[in-house]
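Researcher: Please predict.
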Amino acid sequence: MEKLKLHGFNNLTKTLSFNIYDICYATNEKHQQEYISYIDEVYNAGRLTEILTEVTRIIGATILNTAYQDYDPQGASVTMLVAEGPVPISEEEIRKEAPGPLPEAVVAHLDKSHITVHTYPEFHPDEGISTFRVDIDVSTCGVISPLKALNYLIHSFESDIVTIDYRVRGFTREINGGKVYIDHEISSIQNYLADDTCNKYEMIDVNVYQENIFHTKMLLKEFDLDNYLFGSGVHELSHEEEKKIREKLRHEMLEIFYARNFTAEH
């Protein structure tokens, strides 16, 4: 795509919204509460602010204001208002459909933009399943696509399931008066993910190209059960217990991935 000659500022709004889910198995109520406490400590408002601050560095933005809150009994939120920053590399490089850095700096040209994150830790009252959900929105106005921060964000959390939505809204006007509804080429969000990420996940795309709407869902292919047990280890389980817990974890992942409840036999 050729460099655009614009009449004034680039007015396109690019919004990246995604949910990240981390699944865990806690054997009893005590371990469930310990898991919630652990999540609240590791991903409290202070830690989330650090993550979003790094996002603004990656896309070259300047933080204008930060609001954050830890909630009772659990969860946290952070909202940042950001403004445009320097553009240290060319627009041609910015608009490439390629993975962003992890975590080296990229470029940005932002104004009237914001980044938000909200966490939702919870657990099943009877089945031992605990689920940690993170909702993240990165909305920018200008040259850069927030997709350049995607690699860093996914690697900042333990991600079993990821659902990603990206949309370009509005238009910007060329110097000759014509309107431009998207200023960079994109065929799939997957092209902005690093190879190691793509190899770890099963991925499904649902794209509406004529509306500049792109959607990708990601499901972890394999998992080490020891990393999913809270308060115990695989060595403490019988073969039948291990099999049952694996089935519960995969069942939870599949339900979230497909956004529907399955019966036990599925």
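Model: The two ends are 46 Å apart (CA to CA).
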